[in-house]
């Protein structure tokens, strides 16, 4: 059974269509990348899947259950967790206190002391900064906190919205290595929305190319990376004419 089925999903802001009858699925343990230009509808799709914006039509099924108008907090309890583009940390709280917020999705079922050790092993810099206010961290460290908070919730499906945006390449590499390692070794299921197509396709089991709110191509990460149209436009690869 698929962990996620998105069926003919549409999202509108007033009269503006952001997502148009989009359908796709995610299998347990996959890393699925959604790529496309800025404004293609990727983030709107993730927010709708998470319940943060309503669907104009269509439905989302999680582990075989129709979510309908299930609110965000209930989707979190079911095992979905979105790390938004803007990270949404509490800047006046410490790193450790921000991380602790992740336990509330599974209150009583998670030992925070054990989980925070796990996060510090993934992102050692956070242990050094654990008493520092989140608002004083670098962008990369803030992203680590946001992802760490999500991982403490032990999600069945992790939704990542543009995790590389504004970050130095070495930091991006470190964060992506952690995510890919968790997916491959622990079976973490991930949907990655990413404008950096090369990064997203290298990490993906499967990928979807989105343009103007619609899926126009689907395949493995390698298949999409080898597609001439996608390579020219999204990967910056110019192929020599025969």
From TrEMBL:
<dbReference type="GO" id="GO:0015807">
    <property type="term" value="P:L-amino acid transport"/>
</dbReference>
<dbReference type="GO" id="GO:0005524">
    <property type="term" value="F:ATP binding"/>
</dbReference>
<keyword id="KW-0029">Amino-acid transport</keyword>
<keyword id="KW-0547">Nucleotide-binding</keyword>
<keyword id="KW-0997">Cell inner membrane</keyword>
<keyword id="KW-1003">Cell membrane</keyword>
<protein>
    <submittedName>
        <fullName>High-affinity branched-chain amino acid transport ATP-binding protein LivF</fullName>
    </submittedName>
</protein>
<dbReference type="Pfam" id="PF00005">
    <property type="entry name" value="ABC_tran"/>
</dbReference>
<keyword id="KW-0067">ATP-binding</keyword>
<dbReference type="InterPro" id="IPR052156">
    <property type="entry name" value="BCAA_Transport_ATP-bd_LivF"/>
</dbReference>
<dbReference type="GO" id="GO:0015658">
    <property type="term" value="F:branched-chain amino acid transmembrane transporter activity"/>
</dbReference>
<keyword id="KW-0472">Membrane</keyword>
<dbReference type="InterPro" id="IPR017871">
    <property type="entry name" value="ABC_transporter-like_CS"/>
</dbReference>
<dbReference type="InterPro" id="IPR003593">
    <property type="entry name" value="AAA+_ATPase"/>
</dbReference>
<dbReference type="GO" id="GO:0016887">
    <property type="term" value="F:ATP hydrolysis activity"/>
</dbReference>
<dbReference type="InterPro" id="IPR003439">
    <property type="entry name" value="ABC_transporter-like_ATP-bd"/>
</dbReference>
<dbReference type="InterPro" id="IPR027417">
    <property type="entry name" value="P-loop_NTPase"/>
</dbReference>
<comment type="similarity">
    <text>Belongs to the ABC transporter superfamily.</text>
</comment>
<feature type="domain" description="ABC transporter">
    <location>
        <begin position="4"/>
        <end position="237"/>
    </location>
</feature>
<keyword id="KW-0813">Transport</keyword>
